[in-house]
Amino acid sequence: EENPSRERTILRTAEKLRPFFFNKLPESEDSERLSFRRRHALQKFKSSGSIASDFLCPICGCPVSEADLQTVRSNLETGLVKGAFFRSICCSSCTFQILPEEESSMDTVYSLLPEEMIRRTKCNGTAGQSWL
Fold first, then answer.
1. pLDDT in tens, 43-76
2. Residue 56 phi, psi dihedral angles, 5° rounding
3. Element (H or E) spanning 129, and its range?
4. Which residue in 4, 82, 103, 125 has the most C-beta neighbors within 10 A?
């Protein structure tokens, strides 16, 4: 059955989504050239380990906004402690909904995080690379 309200919601949500650097399609190119460029770009990405333009939240994996990214860069320069640095790398939604406000509680949460998440956070913050 048709539901115009639902369709409008879906369209508004789709407009808000932004593509990652690795899946943006050029406007007009023939399919053979496009598939060649995709394969070539994928091989180049795998071999070079290039720095991604998108920065992902270590908790939810969503792209971090430009404003939050500027905060991360400034916090890298000031050399924050582990818990505060982790908070600065997370998106504003996770910071508000999941992470505690108190610094001592944040250090406790940081100590309970899985080692893999901490390692990815360090790589993400120091190299500017995103992880999937």
1. 554 444 433 446 778 888 888 777 777 777 776 6
2. -105, 145
3. none
4. 125
